[in-house]
Amino acid sequence: MKSHDVFISYSQSDRDCAFEIVARLESRDISVWIAPRDVEPSADWAADIIDAISAARVMVLVFSASTNASAQVRREVERAVSKGLVVLPFRIEDVLPSKSLEYFLSSQHWLDAFPPPRDPHYERLCAFLKAALAAPGTAQTREVPVVAPAGPKTPGLSPDALTQAAALKSVPKPPCASPEQLHQLETELARYIGPVAKHLVRQAATTAVDLPQLKLSLCTELDTEQDRKKFLSACSRIGVSGS
What we know:
CATH class of the largest domain: Alpha Beta
Strand content: 5-15%
Helix content: 40-55%
Oligomer: single chain
Number of strands: 5
Structural class: alpha/beta
CATH architecture of the largest domain: 3-Layer(aba) Sandwich
Number of domains: 2
Radius of gyration: 22 Å
CATH topology of the largest domain: Rossmann fold
Distance between the termini: 36 Å
């Protein structure tokens, strides 16, 4: 996926405002990604959104009362923060974030877009983003991996020992779950959060060391303790007796 300057996150009730922002930003030569316009045909919707967040430099969050009720928006903001992305809440109503969003937004800069009309607020947003994107260090940066120079660096280890150690590190991590178990986990998680479950399960499986850890990791995607307990209970038989 090509990189872009801004990812727009919004709830469906704020769609008109979100696309007005897109039009303003693109008229200023700021590249924007927004769903559903930029989702590739036949693409995995959830995977495309997460990839687009990773490819952006700034997330603009159209924030209103309906944002607090949107689990999809919360997950997008969570992903952005975990990727080190700058999140800019553009507040179109005089409301505060819910506790689940406040955790991710408490240290962010806010732009208020009320009272109406919104045109002057759109202009401020464009000016702010132009400056932020131009200034070094204010938007997401991508580090280039540093390759250590060749040759042994650890006292007491021969070149052969270092080669063997490097070979061990390169051995792929064994899968924490079978394809069938991953599918079962996707099915259970999707009951709560929809199609994004498929991508989250595959992503979590790359770091989990075993099936129990994978289950615990996935239950953190759910908002309430009650849902987390139900999810773990439903998953309790996955991996038992070959299931």
